[in-house]
Amino acid sequence: MTILQNTITGPGDVTGSSNVAIYLINSNDNKIFHNHIESMAWGITLASFGVSESTNNMILGNTLTSLNYSSPIHIQGRCSYNSIQNNTISECTFAVNGGIIFLNDGTENNRVSNNHLSNNSGIGIWLATGSNNTIGPNNTSNENGWGFYFSAPTSHNNVFNNTALDNTVCDIVNLGTNNTFSRNTANCTQGL
């Protein structure tokens, strides 16, 4: 399936899981390209439940702005070999979640590159779980709550050639094990 060049605008101040712009479950080989999503609770969610997987999907060139409940790009469950590239996420007021977030075991071997996250209240790119993902090159996460955040269960992720500056709490935080960081630009780092 290809989801291409749509403008999806919500009513503004909305919450809840039913206000999702694009939601794919247990789905493979999809292309989500050049969509504009604004004023929704959630943006793009790629998920898997049970033993099924969501693999080989591309989330490319989307603009997500003014989302106000949860993650603009949300990857959950057994999701692997997906590509998240060239997306712009800004002015989102999600309380805790990340602009791009990986949740639950099985988020492996994904590539996140050339994304631009700015002026969001939460975390720019957050790996709550996941291993063997490539985060880079050329992601920028500036003027958010945190720039990049790797929680304790994460491991063996390769994070390189990214920029995180002027984030409120810290630019790069690593609580995971065996994550590799190289050639990133940041003023505040923890756990590297």
**Quaternary form:** single chain
Order of helices and strands: EEEEEEEEEEEEEEEEEEEEEEEEEE
Give the overall pLDDT as a whole number.
93
Structural class label: mainly beta
If you had to describe this structure to a student in words, what would you say it looks like?
With 192 residues, the protein is mainly beta. The chain is built from no helices and 26 strands. The chain has an eight-stranded parallel β-sheet, with no helix packed on it. Strands 3-6-10-14-17-20-23-26 form an eight-stranded parallel β-sheet, with no helix packed on it. Strands 2-5-9-13-16-19 form a six-stranded parallel β-sheet, with no helix packed on it. The N and C termini lie far apart (40 Å). The mean pLDDT is 93.
Short summary:
Helix content is 0%, strand content 46%.
Looking at this protein, list some descriptive labels.
single chain; 192 residues; mainly beta; 8-stranded parallel beta sheet; 0% helix
